[in-house]
User: Fold these one by one.
Assistant:
Number 1:
Amino acid sequence: MESIDLQVLRTARDWRAAAEPVLLVTVARTWGSSPRPVGSMMALRGDGRVVGSVSGGCIEDDLIHRYSTAHGGAGLKDGVPEVVQYGVSADDAHRFGLPCGGTLQLVLEFNPSGPALDELLAALDSGRLIRRGLTLASNEVTLTATATPEQFSFDGRQMFNTLGPAYRLLMIGAGALAEYLATMALFNGFRVAVCDPRPEYIETWAVQGVERIIGMPDDVVRDFAVDLRTCIVALSHDPKLDDLALLEALHSPAFYIGAIGSRRNSQLRRERLIEHFAETPASLERLHGPIGLYIGSKTPAEIAVSVMAEILAAKNGVSLPGAFSVAQAKHAIESVACSS
């Protein structure tokens, strides 16, 4: 499943190519609680069709009624971008279903350039990270390749939004847990690949939309062009496969690196990497293991939920309290049991 940003841009491009009027809406600022983060986008077609979202639904409804001819609106005409704000008053917050105290500022782009959308999507589809700039007064759009994701910014005159290829998940080991995790990652807009040199595992892989790679995992990681939007998870339970792949991953810019295993196995893995491969406690700080958040999971499906939650927290820059980790939570439970 493609990320929602790419869905919005691709749909807007297709509508423009079909000579349909389009409104491209971006969340530019938020105050207080907000249903969607800055940079979130939606596209509205002249007849009221919508892809993407900027709120829980009520603001979308208002935009549809304002700008779509099918719902009595004035329709979409060419013009410079506009800035609109919702939720300034308590009445507005209640009317538009915003959380208590929430306020949204939106940038509206009327009939964005089809060729510019083509150029942007071609760059994203080729795997490049692009900083899209919009100058409101002139309606000028700039596209600049960048190596580092930058924070969304809007100063009232210019808006900059860094857009990139989909986040990627590379899994080592094609077992049952990997199939559940792949399904969840696809649902969250990740491009997913699974590597396993064992034919009895990789040849029975059943999840559609996942790239299957047969090869030694360390070679695969090395050739994967790992970047800041890549996460790598070792799931094979075989040190011969997992350890060497993790070594390569630890010296890459991957935003998340993790390995399945019990607390004991995770500790033994760390000791092996330090003793035999010259890693250090500091270099292993990036290695998550046991992976996942503690939710008492027992089945592969439940474990996949906990792992995906930890990956998404890392992707979103959320620092989780230690009590959420599997190791600390189980240690706390055991301590309570021993004292009772």
Number 2:
Amino acid sequence: MCGLCGIFGLEAHWTDDPGATPVSRQADRAHRARVANTVLGLFGLKLTPWADRFTLAGRTGKSAVVGHLGAVWPTAEKLAGRPCDPLDPAVIERVEHLAARR
């Protein structure tokens, strides 16, 4: 999807605070991306805030625009070409191991 197409069709999601100021909304999205990247990095993916949305990119250069966190995981599976389950016990164990090292 091109960047322009990603601008249209933004739906509300429960993770977005409707009363947030533009500055606090950007800070919230940046924080969510950092947290999500802890898991996404295990699959070779990176989430970046962009224009009240996110871009999700893989190591091969493939990328997609996602409107909210709910759309990240199905998109991650498409980009990675494999299941990306953040609740998989093995994934949770790896994230806990990474957190313990910090």
